[in-house]
Request: fold
Amino acid sequence: MATYRGAIVDVDGTLVRGDNGLSGAADAVRTLRETGIDPLFFSNNPTQPPEHYVERLAAHDIDIDAAEVLTSALVTAEFLEDEHAGRDVFVVGETYLRELLERRGFAVRDDPDDADVLVASIDREFDYETLTEAFWALENGASFVGTDPDVTIPVHERLVPGSGAIINAIAGVAGRDPNHVLGKPSADAGRAALSHLDVSPEECLVVGDRLDTDVALGERVGATTVLVRSGVTTPGELAESDATPDYVLDSVREIGEVLAD
Reply:
């Protein structure tokens, strides 16, 4: 039986979908804790603070602490502190991301010509003017950083565009790829998650519903990967994917099967 000390657990599509809790999610989290496994709840959603997830999961009988939450926004902020400290940023994103970067000491500029770094993320008010200004920032030589690669995100029973859609639009008009895309499955995200948990990859599970982010993150860092079929991954996508999860479960409620193996 493998010995795990930590688990990187996805939120949307794994524990909840929109405003609805997924069956067995609360029991699964309790099972992890009772087995001595510390969970880290990792969302690629860069629009909300950790406290949002505390309240959101509490509504579905999942009790967590804000310190147990990691998001692509937090990974992005940590990356910028390490690589672009003191630089001015132009943000294509929503209020929380802007405020987070300001609290971390970055000057968030309204003029794209003043920016050293363009930070691109989901922006539900994204329009032609914003696209133009992002293009100008890159034309002026700014570094290009994306919060996360999720082209779509699940909301209730449907998908809507995510950060990746915005990042790809900017990359398309600028004719250049981002210098870095943070969040899952980046190496930066993997290092941040393992550091928060203080575990080695061999002692860690990665549980989620996406092959291209959750499973890919686990494979990148060398952790044990668990794909749940309660989210966006279809059987056809699983069959055709180069990513091969170590375990495939119908839902997270079956996590005990992994722990008993």
